[in-house]
Write a structure and sequence with these properties.
about 850 residues; 24 helices; 7-stranded mixed beta sheet; about 20% strand; binds pterin cytosine dinucleotide; 5-stranded mixed beta sheet; alpha+beta
């Protein structure tokens, strides 16, 4: 134990969690081996939509090592075993169990009384928490399908065996007869009259329609000099955490309870939903998130396999393990995005926006997942972006398809929103003849440091948008880039330069419970922290957040060490185990620092408040005469009279001589429910080189100036931005989940689904400005998703900018070489002919042969948009 030499917050303290992670000492779910543990594999439907006419598991049961094989019907009664009224489990949830069951939704939380005598298949079983409207249609979601499969990947049978390989081999011996049905694959077609239905019993493919409106939208459009209208596609993306999903369920024969270890980002939410879904009393269920190798939102869910593992552990009385393989990850872990966006701006002739209409079709996939319906709703609040105007009209329709269910993927609704506004603002700029910078400047808010009303009916916490834009323009040498672009255009260089802007904000730090209740999220937004000083003077912090790559152990240690004036290595951060922290709202929506980290700060302040009283008692001084610095209370004017916080912790622990009536130990717990969300913002410039002969897009430079308020750990924030931007440019140029006409995923491996590697990711030039949030005492804003939210529009704006001389204004994401090349051919009235397959967009594989042309090197053209006939 040492005294803290310096202030840690704002310094690049190396991540404390990394040594274990990079030296093989991490504890992944798949490392867990328990005595007598059995292994589970699942058989998945090869059909997107089919009736199951029969399943024969007899051969599979006879395979070596197989202990049991179950179909959906075999397990139908098991979901309801031991159902118990569990009122404690609903704490913090907006609706009572009874209300939820009455509207036919959410996890099966019916009490024993209400279920008595009711056939199990008459109830709606579902994992969904966020039910946007009262009349939301919620399909039955059996963990193991019964009678019908609704996407290629739906589970139809489960094998339990003595080892994973035997369980896997036995799957081949299960005979399933399917009667294929017409699949629904497209959200626009799904809503057409006479379209096949994903769930016939629901009578429609529409799950819900949610709307938001402010101001007089018709008046805004009537008054407009200019109206621009666009349709954008947000392709489906597949989250690729390094560690796939996995779960171990362990029955405890002594307590009668269960421990579930899961590679999850939400141990607390998982505990509640699993308990209610599977009828396990919540107090008898412990959930542990061991080391978790990334999630990006995909582990913000309660999955069928987690419920299956718990129910099998209960049925068989032994621990069971299920580990997802990468192909299953692609099929059965949620997908992100999947939206069609219709957006319209009304503006005056000077380019000042008057109003905005947004209408979305959001692909829910086959079932409603935990927050699936809420994802486009999160976006609704930031479609207006950094622009202030008078009228806004938003609606989203959630649509069922026979595809993998969708839910949160890094950014969750906000990358889609910022993409749409940052693309259409460029359309408006073209229409009124303004530069992309000028159109933004004319519509920005003036700098503000107090909550400020927005067109979406919420309040942004603080912002200075002009400052980030001015700085990024300087960093990128915008004038110089335009000059280079002009030279290349004039010289007919086959490699054209594109400069793309994106200025973004986002709604994060999820956040005030009352607002979440109004949005019907089914969850609350507080976070908790307990800071306790041990007898030896070291510190334990128990947090309700659940990091899975974000470095909370380091950041929370910095906050605590600075507050208490102790060494950063004397602080231990404990997380991810509901036995240790029964309360917590976990990690997602870039909430952990603005909610959980702030809770740590507040709890530490309470420890200091108590310590001050003890110090006054020990030093026989008035509390008001004490100052606290560097972990030491001293009497103002008599610095020799002092006592360290460690000595106070020891005295508080011993309880020999504390102030009258004071309880022993220095341990304080705080529950912090913030008054508002946080709204980080930034300005990005992407510079691309587009090879007009091949369609390849190379990102040459990427500049960003981001503002997430005061920074706790700059190295971590840099890392968050680096990874976030990489995921954003991946959507813009590379990634897409593609299905064939039967609903089979054709990008089912990492060969077909292009994740950018190091060669595809450019060098980033990043800077930050600091505009403190008015929402919390640290002034901090979240940053975990910012890069992913800002990047896609910057990249596509750059591609469109490079191609503007052809009259090309848009390329759908991902802007693959094929799409770019095709657009150039179309623009020139050429028949591109048939080409078999799309090409990989990896510049590492393709641009080398093309090379780039230095300014002025190209051949001057005489005709046509760029370099005339050469193109
Ligand atoms: N931070 C900081 N100063 C700030 C803001 C943040 O030092 N002003 C630090 C925080 O202390 C924390 C980290 O940055 O260590 C991220 O904090 P925050 O923005 O609060 O985000 P969360 O911790 O809540 O993380 C969630 C966010 C989301 S929603 C996704 S998706 C995502 C992401 O984080 N998934 C990730 N980053 C990821 N990083 C990794 N490695 N793996 C994932 O799955």
């Amino acid at each position: 134990m040492t005294e803290a030499p310096e202030r840690y917050v704002g310094g690049g303290v190396p991540r404390k969690e990394d040594p274990a992670l990079i030296t093989g000492r991490a504890n992944w779910t798949d490392n867990i081996k328990l005595p007598g543990m059995l292994h589970v594999t699942v058989l998945r439907s090869p059909y997107a939509h089919a009736k199951i006419t029969s399943i024969d598991v007899s051969e599979a049961k006879n395979q070596p090592g197989v202990v049991a094989v179950f179909t959906g019907d075999d397990l139908a009664e098991d979901w309801d075993k031991n159902p118990q009224a569990n009122p404690a489990a609903v704490t913090g949830y907006g609706m009572s169990l009874e209300e939820r069951s009455q509207q036919g939704g959410t996890s099966v939380t019916d009490t024993a009384d209400t279920t008595a005598g009711q056939p199990v298949d008459e109830k709606t079983r579902t994992f969904v928490s966020w039910i946007p409207t009262e009349d939301t249609k919620i399909p039955n979601h059996w963990p193991v399908a019964r009678g019908e499969v609704n996407y290629a990947g739906d589970i139809v049978a489960v094998v339990v065996a003595t080892d994973r390989y035997k369980a896997q081999d036995a799957l081949e011996f299960i005979e399933v007869d399917y009667e294929p049905m017409e699949p629904v694959l497209d959200v626009e077609a799904a809503l057409q009259e006479g379209a096949p239905l994903v769930h016939e019993d629901l009578g429609s493919n529409e799950s819900f329609t949610w709307t938001l409106g402010t101001g007089d939208i018709d008046d805004a459009f009537n008054r407009a000099d200019v109206v621009v209208k666009e349709r954008y596609l947000q392709q489906r993306l597949i989250p690729n955490a390094i560690e796939t999903r996995g779960v171990v369920a362990n029955p405890d024969p002594i307590s009668g309870g269960y421990t579930v270890y899961s590679s999850t980002q939400i141990p607390h939410i998982l505990r509640f939903v699993l308990a209610t879904y599977c009828g396990v009393p919540e107090q008898q269920l412990r959930v542990v998130a061991p080391d978790v190798g990334g999630a990006f939102g995909s582990k913000l869910n309660v999955y069928a396999e987690e419920a299956i593992a718990l129910v099998l552990a209960r049925k068989l009385g032994v621990p069971v393990k299920w580990i997802e393989d990468r192909s299953e990850n692609y099929l059965a872990t949620i997908h992100g995005r999947g939206q069609v966006q219709y957006i319209e701006l009304a503006a005056n002739s000077e380019g000042k926006i008057l109003g905005m209409r947004v209408n979305l079709l959001a692909d829910m996939g086959a079932y409603l997942m935990l927050d699936g319906p809420g994802i486009p709703i999160l976006g609704a609040f930031v479609y207006p972006g950094l622009y202030t105007f008078g009228a806004y009209d938003f609606s989203v329709t959630g649509v069922f398809t026979n595809l993998t269910p969708t839910d949160a993927y890094r950014g969750a609704g906000r990358p889609e929103a910022i993409f749409a506004i940052e693309r259409i603002i460029e359309a408006l700029a073209r229409e009124v003849g303004l530069d992309p910078v000028e159109i933004r400047r004319r519509n920005f808010y003036e700098p503000f440091d107090e909550p400020t009303d927005t067109p979406a009916g919420i309040q942004y916490d603080s912002g200075n948008y002009q400052m980030t834009l001015d700085r990024v323009i300087e960093l990128a040498d915008y004038e110089g880039l335009r000059e280079e672009q002009r030279r290349r255009r004039e010289s007919g260089d086959p490699v054209q330069l594109g400069i793309g802007f994106s200025t973004y904000t986002e709604i994060c730090g999820l956040a005030p419970s009352q607002v979440l209740s109004g949005l019907r999220t089914g969850g609350s937004g507080w976070e908790t922290a307990k800071v306790q000083m041990l007898a030896s003077g070291t510190v334990e912090v128990i947090t309700g957040t659940s990091p899975h790559g974000q470095g909370h152990v380091t950041s929370w240690s910095q906050i605590t060490a600075d507050a208490l004036g102790v060494d950063v290595n004397d602080v231990e951060i404990l997380h991810g185990d509901t036995a240790m922290s029964p309360y917590g709202r976990d990690t997602y929506g870039s909430r952990s620092l603005p909610v959980g980290g702030v809770a740590v700060h507040l709890a530490a302040q309470q420890v200091i408040d108590k310590a001050r009283k003890i110090a006054a008692h020990m030093l026989e001084a008035a509390e008001g005469d004490l100052e606290f610095e560097g972990g030491r209370f001293s009497v103002v004017g008599s610095p020799d009279q002092n006592v360290t916080i460690q000595d106070i912790a020891a005295a508080a622990y011993m309880n020999y001589d504390l102030p009258e009536g004071m309880e022993p130990v220095l341990s304080e717990e705080v529950f912090w429910d913030p008054p508002n969300f946080t709204f980080p913002f930034g300005a990005h410039i992407c510079v691309v080189e587009v090879d007009t002969e091949t369609g390849f897009v190379k990102i040459r430079d990427y500049f960003g100036v981001d503002d997430c308020g005061p920074v706790i750990n700059p190295t971590i924030v840099d890392g968050q931005l680096h990874g976030g931007i990489a995921q954003g440019l991946a959507q813009a140029l590379y990634e897409e989940a593609v299905y064939d006409e039967d609903g089979n995923l054709t990008t089912g491996t990492m060969v077909d689904y292009i994740i950018p590697g190091a060669p595809e990711v450019p060098h980033y030039t990043l800077e930050r400005t600091v505009t403190p949030s008015s929402t919390n005492p640290l002034g901090v804003k979240g940053v975990g998703e910012a890069g992913t939210i800002g990047a896609p529009a910057a990249v596509i704006n750059a591609v469109a900018d490079a191609l503007s001389p052809y009259g090309i204004t848009h390329i759908d994401m991902p802007a693959s070489p094929w799409k770019v090349w095709q657009a150039i051919q179309d623009a020139q009235g050429r028949d591109a002919g048939e080409r078999e397959a799309d090409l990989s967009g990896r510049p590492s594989q393709t641009m080398e042969s093309t090379g780039t042309t230095e300014p002025g090197e190209g051949t001057a053209g005489t005709d046509g948009p760029i370099g005339g006939d050469r193109l």
